[in-house]
Amino acid sequence: MILIFWYYFKREFEISISQITDILSQLVFFILIMMLFPIALGPDPENLKEFGIAIIWIAAFVSLTPAYDRLFSDDYIHGFIEKSAHNAQPLGCYAAAKCFCFYLITALPLLIILPFICLMIGINISFYGEIALSLALGMFGMTLLGGIASSLVLGARRAAILGAVLILPLSLPILIFGCMSGLALSEDLSMRPHIFMLLAIDLCLVVMALPAMQAGLKNAIENA
After folding, report:
1. pLDDT value, residue 87
2. Which of 220, 182, 22, 34 lies closest to 106 in space, CA to CA?
3. pLDDT band at 167 (very low <50, low <70, confident <90, very high)
4. Model pTM score
5. pLDDT digits (tens, 9 = 90+) for 59-83
6. What are the angstrom distances between the C-alpha of 162 and each of 29, 69, 106, 152, 166?
7. Contact call for residues 209 and 148 (beta carbons, < 8 A)
8. What ranges do the domains of the chain cover?
């Protein structure tokens, strides 16, 4: 099982690196959103400090949501998922490798530029560790939700719109606790309760996501 996971992960990583423009476009989109919010809120440093972390969460969610549609669609179109199923290879292992690679490729660049984003909107750079931890947990949960939504709408008409409609309400708990962690940080309160809630959500999604994605992929193959 570990060898199969590594095979899928290595394949997906090589494909992702070859499509580096997609990663850069998501990163640029994230930066543009971060630049537009201060224009809307005004130059007041206190406002930016109060809403800055919530802005980071919203920008991360908006910039990554369109990418979830492409999570399984290319492999589905080219018949790779069907081939894996016919070779009796576990689709859950394939889905896990796909989501984990997607998470690393999308989360790491955002976390790398996060200190510069904090400086841009006036957030104390000493808060970077707490913000990065909460954002990493939240993006992991959102990636699993994106994988579930992408597998369920695979092969459907206007799958991108359907996937976004599924992801948005399901992601609300993650966004709420993420924004609340930022609010607690700005008010010098402990972030631990919100971090623990994000961790609990991630653990629940780990248990539910793989069977759901495997069922969605099988259904897409059978209805192809």
Report:
1. 67
2. 22
3. confident
4. 0.89
5. 888 888 888 877 888 888 887 888 8
6. 22, 9, 22, 9, 6
7. yes
8. 2-222
